[in-house]
Specification:
Length: about 220
């Protein structure tokens, strides 16, 4: 009987160690607003997502870009920081994102590119430490937004989040994206708890502050 209670206690501790951080991240990151309700902020941080082989943004990425475009056109934000993966030859999320925005009416000098946003954690930390962003609207899918909010706030950013639809993918892929948030949330908690550095900390850049200064 004693052994049974010991195993039960150990199982509960393991469950708390695994589930606790995930619940904490998802709970602490619940600060979404509707696009039309977003309060004015200097910058929108747009998180990268997949790019099609022909160089077009994936459906999920296009929804993020459309929301960012609307935030800019409404005057809610002045600068768009697009952050994504450019870690291999022939794959460049930030450039695809910037080109799409410019093609849809956003001035080129209003778009700043972060080529080393290899993860949500990297994007948030680099936005603060490399680009000097302290206040921003976060733009990503609604299922991803709690983790992004948690990480950016932990990095020192005052945020509000606009969650965009998660439609257009096959249902199997959509389910996998949602389920992936569980281990990803645990990793987010670990990265914050252990104060992990981004893959490329990088030197300080003034591109965001320069764009804001030019905006007057």
């Amino acid at each position: 009987m004693r052994r049974r209670w010991w195993f039960l206690g150990a199982a509960v501790l393991v469950l708390l160690g695994v589930a606790g951080p995930m619940v904490w991240v998802q709970t602490r990151g619940q600060h979404a607003v509707a696009l039309d309700d977003a309060a004015p902020a200097p910058v929108a941080v747009v998180f990268g997502a997949g790019v099609r082989p022909d160089g077009r943004p994936s459906a999920y990425l296009r929804y993020r870009l459309e929301a960012a475009q609307q935030l800019y056109e409404a005057g809610t934000v002045s600068v768009l920081l697009v952050s994504g993966d450019n870690g291999r030859v022939g794959y460049d999320e930030p450039t695809v994102m910037a080109d799409w925005l410019v093609d849809h009416g956003v001035p080129r000098d209003r778009v700043v590119l972060d080529y080393a946003g290899f993860s949500t954690h990297d994007t948030c930390v680099r936005a603060v430490e490399v680009f000097g962003v302290t206040e921003a609207v976060l733009v990503t899918q609604d299922y991803h937004l709690p983790r992004a909010t948690y990480l950016c706030r932990a990095a020192g950013m005052d945020t509000q989040g606009v969650g965009v639809p998660a439609r257009g993918a096959q249902w199997q892929r959509s389910v996998s994206y949602h389920l992936r948030e569980l281990p990803a949330s645990w990793k987010a908690w670990w990265d914050v708890t252990t104060n992990q550095s981004p893959t490329y900390p990088g030197p300080r850049e003034t591109s965001v502050t320069d764009a804001l200064r030019a905006d007057g």
